[in-house]
Specification:
With 745 residues, the protein is of the alpha+beta class. It contains 24 helices and eleven strands. The strands form three sheets. Strands 6, 7, 8, 9 and 10 form a five-stranded antiparallel β-sheet that branches. The protein has a four-stranded antiparallel β-sheet with strand order 2-3-1-4, sandwiched between helices. The chain is elongated, with a radius of gyration of 30 Å.
């Protein structure tokens, strides 16, 4: 591996014009494709294997032309203080609004509040339901404008009017904090390298990679039905890993220059050594993201594959484009220890004019590692107890999917949600649709009535509409209004109670009862994700464990890496619960409404954080193994690994945290939550697990950390991550076979 990448790095350095042209051409091609691609259509949210999806599919078959997947809107009216919606003037205003809405070209139907029993008991609030022929993402802008104009005209007439539903669904915005995250990354790079040129290389390559990845996603969005969130998450992860991978290679290049090597040779060796770590770190991220397919939720699978593609591009660019830019930069990229004009300082160990010569001062990484190996047990216990305390809130984790009730109070969707709750009760925002399939029943009408009667007798039910059969008379729909809000545990219990009652009716009549609707779909998604979490963990952690055995040629080091990851991800989930569910620091994070944690959060965090955690494990521990293989004692190898890697890993972690934290400003609650969760997870994993727990465990294990059975050592391929194949005989100073025996001992 190291030898191949060494040759690739030197080739890219020599043929930099040709390689640069290839990447510029790919970026241009992706940009043209994105600009000329049709707008993204319906990003269908199907959940194969769930009862809610089965009922939804049955509705499309038995109620043709009903536009089951069409967008909906609820135009909610509230009368001025002291007036009723049934007053003549207010009634005329509502009727005019309904007539205007019904004229839309994409409108399937509009329900009049006064003929559809859609006026609250106190007469102050009413709503008109609008059904469209196409989904919210496919609605023409003119249709959305007509909806907003009709609402505004009613406001001008003196009514309070708000619009809920998915008809006004907008593409999420990330806000200015994303730019701040990139700016923080730039500052960290300048401090790390002491040079604007060297700092600019990782940023430039990361932006090229993200540009190609996101443009490709945009170009394929319509054909593959990719949602708007897909490109945001790909950008988030692509920026973070793109900067980090380039950072590690540039840092190794400067270290090779400091040892006196020519620039082409230094570029080759940097790609051969640090580039090997980049390849395996990238592979763990790709495995974790592609592994999301085991959940069998198409939207989640697409998000994972798209993000994995962006990571793969980041790896390729780091291996090929960084040598190109290093070649163009020439002497403007200084050796390690030598600062550029921006932060001009002398090289390490070089005497300053007014001070006597002496040994170079140990850097912070060396001093910290020396402290840890002297007191490994105390550091280990402190780190584990601290992460355990942060993980405590995770025991109260409640899962759900965001609805209009989780929107900021500044949005019309949220205000419509609140008005409907005020006028008709909290459960009105999450009605349950019960579908009764009586095709196998001898008396379909009796079966419909039996189901409706059973549901009326359940606790937590406010209203049950009469069964509405299809033209064939073999299927009917029943709308059930709970007395609790959609995201509550009480509503979830009601869904299960209806399904249990439907089982009893099926045993008597042969009619199958199914519960669907957005609320039931959210409940089924949460349960499906919970059921998939353990198999996903086994698959992803298992594959990455095997990969790390090959990289480190050890059993205990990969095991320690996996256990440390579980600690950091549980602590991160605890922090997410504390902020988004309990409301701690919610004002600081811009969380206006607390509630259940997004049901996709745990499994998505497991996938992404595991891949990113292995990045730091690979980059930090490979330097330790490299030192150990080359003859250093175990404790000294830990210190050497920190001497060369701690500064860079710290910079990489700060950069990744800044990039992820930049997405906390998103208007999309899912993106906000993921941005916070990933940022805090990187903090826990990089600074507590990798910087404290890992060296403490390695110090306690000593030589046993690098133990590998001889039979397994012979069976495993030698990927040479340490770059042993690049060392000359003089550099080795010993027989490489002896070094290998040292590891086996």
């Amino acid at each position: 591996m190291a030898t191949f990448l060494y040759k690739l790095g030197r080739l890219a350095f020599r043929r930099r014009h040709f390689v640069a042209l290839i990447w510029v051409a790919l970026l241009t091609l992706a940009g043209v494709g994105a600009a000329s691609a049709p707008p993204a259509g319906n990003s269908s949210f199907s959940i194969p294997g769930t009862e809610a999806q089965k009922a939804f599919d049955l509705l499309e078959q038995r109620f043709p032309g009903a536009s089951a997947d069409g967008a909906t809107a609820r135009v909610v009216f509230k009368a001025p203080s002291g007036e009723k919606m049934t007053d003549a003037d207010n009634k005329a205003t509502v009727q005019k609004t309904v007539d205007e809405l019904a004229d839309g070209s994409e409108v399937a139907s509009v329900a009049d509040p006064y003929t559809g029993n859609a006026v609250s008991k106190d007469g102050t609030i009413a709503y008109a339901s609008v059904k469209y022929d196409v989904s919210g993402m496919e609605l023409e802008e003119s249709t959305k404008d007509a909806l907003e104009d009709a609402a505004q005209q009613a406001r001008d007439a003196g009514l309070t009017v708000e619009v809920g539903g998915d008809a006004l669904q907008a593409v999420p915005e990330t806000g200015a904090t994303e730019v701040i995250g990139i700016a923080v990354a730039a500052v960290v790079l300048v401090i790390t390298f002491g040079s604007l040129v060297a700092a600019g290389l990782p940023l430039l390559t990361a932006l090229i990679g993200v540009g190609i990845g996101v443009s490709s996603i945009t170009a394929l969005a319509s054909a593959l039905e990719l949602g708007s969130t897909t490109s945001i998450l790909a950008m988030m992860i692509g920026l973070a890993v793109g900067i980090d991978y380039a950072l590690f290679i540039v840092s190794r290049y400067r270290a090779e220059l400091a040892e006196g090597r020519e620039r082409e040779e230094a570029a080759g060796r940097a790609v051969g050594t640090a580039g090997s770590a980049v390849v395996f770190a990238g592979l763990t991220v790709v495995i974790a993201l592609v592994g999301l397919a085991v959940v069998n939720i198409p939207m989640l699978t697409k998000m994972g594959v798209a993000a994995a593609g962006t990571v793969a591009i980041a790896v390729l660019i780091a291996l090929t484009m960084i040598p190109v830019l290093l070649g163009y930069a020439g002497r403007r990229v200084k050796p390690a220890g030598a600062k550029g004009r921006l932060l001009g300082r002398s090289r390490k160990g070089e005497p300053k004019p007014d001070r006597p010569a002496g040994p170079p001062k140990a850097n912070l990484g060396t001093r910290w590692a020396s402290f840890v190996v002297r007191r490994p047990l105390a550091v280990l216990l402190l780190g584990v107890i601290g992460l355990g305390a942060a993980a405590v809130p995770a025991a109260s984790l409640e899962l759900g999917l965001p609805d209009d009730g989780s929107q900021p109070t500044s949005t019309t969707q949220r205000r419509a949600y609140d008005l409907l709750s005020e006028g008709f009760g909290p459960g009105f925002n999450g009605p349950l649709m019960v579908v009764v399939d009586a095709k196998g029943s001898d008396a379909p009408k009796d079966a419909f009535d039996d189901v409706a009667g059973e549901i009326k007798g359940l606790d937590g039910v406010v209203a049950v509409t009469p069964p509405a059969p299809n033209k064939g008379g073999d299927t009917a729909t029943i709308t059930v209004i709970p007395d609790s809000k959609p995201s509550s545990v009480q509503t979830e219990d009601l869904v299960h109670a209806i399904r249990d009652a439907g089982g009893d009716v099926e045993a008597k009549t042969g009619a199958e009862t199914l519960v669907t609707g957005s609320t039931a779909m959210n409940i089924d998604v949460s349960e499906k994700l919970n059921d998939a979490l353990v198999p996903y963990l086994v698959l992803v952690v298992g594959l990455a464990f095997l990969l790390l055995i090959v990289v480190f040629r050890s059993i205990l080091v990969p095991l320690k890496a996996a256990l440390g990851f579980l600690l950091s991800v549980m602590a991160a989930l605890g922090a997410v619960v504390a902020v988004f569910q309990w409301g701690w620091l919610s004002g600081l994070m811009g969380v206006e409404e607390t509630g259940p944690v997004m049901s996709m959060m745990p499994i998505f965090m497991v996938g992404v954080v595991f891949g990113l955690a292995m990045d730091y494990e690979v980059f930090l521990v490979t330097r330790m193994r490299e030192a150990f293989v080359h003859g250093e004692k175990p404790h000294q190898a830990v210190v050497t690994g920190f001497k060369h890697g701690a500064r860079v890993v710290t910079a990489a972690a700060v950069i990744m945290m800044a990039v992820f934290a930049g997405f906390i400003g998103s208007s999309e609650s899912m993106v906000k939550m993921i941005g916070f969760g990933l940022a805090i997870a990187v903090f826990f994993d990089a600074f507590v697990v990798r910087m404290a727990i890992v060296p403490a465990v390695l110090a306690l294990l000593g030589k046993k950390a690098w133990w590998l059975p001889k039979w397994l050592d012979r069976a495993l391929p030698n990927v040479d991550v340490e770059g042993e194949g690049l060392r000359t005989a003089g550099e080795r100073g010993s027989d490489p076979d002896e070094d290998r025996e040292l590891v086996r001992a």
